[in-house]
Amino acid sequence: MCAELPNALSDEIFRIIFEKSPGSLLVKADAPRFTIVAASDAYLSITNATRELIIGKGFFQVFPDDDHDPNDETGARKTFSKVVETKQKIDIPSYRYDTRDPDTGDYKIRYWSCSNAPFYCGEGNEMYILNTIVEITGEVNARQEATESEHRLRLAAEATGFATFDWEFKDELSLCSPQLVELLGHPADTMLSSREAFNTQVLPEDRSAVMNAFNDSIKTGVYAYDVRIAWPNSSIHWISVKGKLVTDRDGKPTRMLGTVIDVTENKRDEIRKNDFIAMASHELKTPLTSIKSYVQLLAKKLEASEDAFIHNALAKANTQINKMTDLIHGFLDLSKLESGKLQTKPEVFDMNRLIADCIAELLQSNHNHTVIFDGSMVLNVTADRGKIGQVLNNFLSNAVKYSARGSKILVNSTFTTEGLRVAVTDEGVGIKPKDQKKVFQRFYRADNEKIRNVSGFGIGLYLSSEIIHSHHGKIWVESIEGSGSTFYFSIPA
Ligand code: ADP
């Protein structure tokens, strides 16, 4: 049948290969009839046809074109005519053509992908069209479902006041929902690329937060950050962004999607609250310093007194003043931290010397615990001595606060692969597993019957964790409820 094949074999070989090929149909280019001259087994099976029924018939007699939409360029008649006209292969990546179930007579929605190649055969080198089809109903349905569920999710997010964005890295396509466009200070119908908007509107000093969140999300898959943006009218607003980074099989980021909300009011409240804490702590510090001086003066004056009550009362007053001073300093540090003013001043010092100093200070006011520490070695590090001392004091005073009188506190310091690690172990009440991560959060106090009466504000460990993180270190706890806890920190050596 084909001119290029050896005559004796050509027809037979062609027929066998053709009939076994996947989804192929050969039609003569005798427009408008387009006579079907051959069909593969696979073609017959997927279209529920038989060779007897279709060979020799006009294509559109057997497979009537869906002529509902005259502009539909994917229709078979338009495509075949174009192949004849242009003598070029035409691919239709996706089109719908429903088929009838021979048993029930019902039509079934089906999607196909096809290729139509011109083909020259026979003595007169006549033109044929090789129509190859592949069914893609499964893929199209899956894609539609994914699009619909994404659409539903977006609607749900927007109904709850969240703005959304979707940034596809490959096509540089970054879509903003109308809510996000408004949230960034533009009229809702402005065409805006979320990438461009974020690049230009996030305040320069907050851009590192965006980069850090992105870098973290490569490890965790999720990102969250709060930053300030400048609207086109120059007003400043806080936004909170949360989302997901999608990666391909090789772990390469391909897409970012997420939600954005305006948190300007919350931030203003927080700033007002922090200012209040800072002001109140400052105001309380001044009279307390003067009370402390008077108590110290009194103690000096009454040194010679033999009245045990006087000595006892003054010592107790001094202890309480120290406690209150620590609490106030905690609040002052907190407000400094929140306003970004907590700066570290690194210097080289011996960690064991610092630990010994902190233990000595603790033992001045506490005679009820035994502290075990071997600090004979010199362990030099570069860090902020004052701030690391604050962390140690917090660990030590908590070990005292949350364990019984007479119990032991063990302090250990050593170099590990991660740097210099310090551990403070007590035999106290311990911490439930569910609270172990949370105790490093601001104002978090673990719920435990036995420590209901122990005073505190849940600031110390939060400040400690901020100090350790500002040294690029790690802070964590291991604990068994009822047996005790070990608080650790490590900083790069
Ligand atoms: P505070 O002790 O003032 O409440 P911290 O931030 O220092 O604040 O501690 C937070 C919480 O962690 C405490 O309220 C307590 O529940 C728990 N905690 C801290 N240290 C210990 C410890 N050594 N043993 C048991 N619980 C502890």
Automatic annotation (TrEMBL):
SUPFAM superfamilies: ATPase domain of HSP90 chaperone/DNA topoisomerase II/histidine kinase, Homodimeric domain of signal transducing histidine kinase, PYP-like sensor domain (PAS domain). Residues 149-221 form the PAS domain. It catalyses: ATP + protein L-histidine = ADP + protein N-phospho-L-histidine. Keywords: Kinase, Phosphoprotein, Transferase, Two-component regulatory system. Residues 279-493 form the Histidine kinase domain. InterPro entries: HATPase_C_sf (IPR036890), HATPase_dom (IPR003594), His_kinase_dom (IPR005467), HisK_dim/P_dom (IPR003661), HisK_dim/P_sf (IPR036097), PAC (IPR001610), PAS (IPR000014), PAS-assoc_C (IPR000700). Its EC number is 2.7.13.3. Residues 223-275 form the PAC domain. This is histidine kinase. It comes from Mucilaginibacter dorajii.
